[in-house]
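<goal> How does this chain fold?
<body> The protein record starts here
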Amino acid sequence: EGSVTNLFTSIVGNVFGFKALRALRLEDLRIPPAYSKTFIGPPHGIQVERDKLNKYGRPLLGCTIKPKLGLSAKNYGRAVYECLRGGLDFTKDDENVNSQPFMRWRDRFLFVAEALFKSQAETGEIKGHYLNATAGTCEEMMKRAVFARELGAPIVMHDYLTGGFTANTSLAFYCRDNGLLLHIHRAMHAVIDRQRNHGIHFRVLAKALRMSGGDHIHAGTVVGKLEGEREVTLGFVDLLRDDYI
C-alpha cells in the first residue's frame, strides 16, 4: 500500500526479462479506488496553486532558463529576474541544472530567491521559480528542499524517473506538510516509453506520478523539438486531471 516502487516491482519488475519474450509493452493500468486511496497523490493540486499565486482565469506562463548549462549563479539569477520582471509567472531549472562547478546549487538558490523577491516587489505579483531539488541521495534532496523553503521559494522541482519513485514520494510528503508546490520533470521517460512495441506507455508513467505525488508534470509539447503528437499530448493532460486513475 502507498508504494509506487512496490507496485511496479510486482507488475513489471521481472516479466520484461523473460527470454521467451521478444518484446513487451505495458499500455495502461486501471487502479482500483480502494488501492489508489493508499497513495499520497499531489501535495496540493491546481486550485491550491492558483490560490497561492492569486492568479485565476488564465493559463500560467513560464519558461525554462537557457542556456541550461554554463551560466554562473549570478547570471542565472539575472536571467530569472528579467523573465519574471518581463511578465512571466514562473521560470524553471532544466532537468540537468543541478550542482556543477560553474554553478553550485546553494548559490543558484540564493540568486534565484533574490530575483524572485525583486520581481515581486516591482510588479506586485507573486512569482515563482522551479528550483531543482533532485540529488544523489534522498538526504541531500531533502536538504535542498528545506533550504528552498527557508528562502521563501514557493515551488521546487524533481526528476521523478531518474530520482526514483521512493525519493519522489518522500519529497511530495515534505512539500505537502510544508506548503511547497512540487513540479515534476520526466527526464528519461523516452528510454521507457518511446518504442511502440516495447516498454511502458507514458500514460502509465503519468498515473504513477499521480500516485507518487506531484502538483504538475511536463506532459509533452504540441509544438517544438520533442517527439509527440498534439492529440496524444492533450490526452495526457486530460488523464492527469481525471477524477480516477
Notes: Residues 155 and 181 are 4 Å apart (CA to CA). The mean pLDDT is 95.
